[in-house]
Amino acid sequence: MASTSPESAAATETDGSIQIRRLELADHERGFVSLLSQLSSCPDLTASEFAARFTELAAHGDDHVILVAEDSSAQERRILATGCLFVERKFLRGGGKVGHVEDVVIDATARGKGLGLRVVRRLVEIAREAGCYKVILDCTPELRAYYAKCGFVEKGVQMAVYF
Ligand SMILES: CC(C)(COP(=O)(O)OP(=O)(O)OC[C@H]1O[C@@H](n2cnc3c(N)ncnc32)[C@H](O)[C@@H]1OP(=O)(O)O)[C@@H](O)C(=O)NCCC(=O)NCCS
User: Fold this and answer.
1) Which of 67, 69, 82, 126 gives a 20 to 30 Å CA spacing to 38?
2) Does ligand 1 come within 6 angstroms of the Cβ of 113?
3) What digits encode the pLDDT tens for the residues 89-121?
4) Which domains does the chain have, with CATH numbers?
5) Is the full-model pTM beyond 0.90?
């Protein structure tokens, strides 16, 4: 099955009926795009638009990991959660690597059950295994407590230019 990495099995984690694994091409049909729209503006993508972006991201291999969670006991295969890790390769720190956690969202029906914690912790583990010296993310002040539970500490100030 097409997934964003040939080493996709290494990212897979199963606890109870919930499996966390790498994004697959077929997840377009399993509600992945509409799940993202619970986080930010995310208009639907046609199958070919989705496939084009999927292929582009898959070319980054383990430097761009999108995890999804699904309930393997459910009759209909639906994506319940997602989160992304982007690995930035630097000249600093002897050619060090920094992990960036992005686009974490849990379906409204599945929140408050520890799934968000599992997805982010797994992304952090993958970053550690990839040799990153730190993992960073941006979030709103309301999510400080959640990310603290995931092991993050507050550091610096976020700044942005939007276009
Ligand atoms: C924020 C979000 C990812 C949390 O996922 P979740 O699966 O509901 O969280 P969990 O059940 O794993 O919670 C883990 C811990 O964090 C706490 N927590 C979760 N959401 C929280 C919040 N908004 N504020 C404070 N604490 C929170 C939980 O109480 C829990 O603590 P406990 O272990 O002491 O019980 C989810 O609510 C979500 O998708 N929100 C909308 C999208 C979003 O804001 N994404 C983050 C973008 S930066």
Assistant:
1) 126
2) yes
3) 999 999 999 999 999 999 999 999 999 999 999
4) 8-149 (3.40.630.30)
5) yes
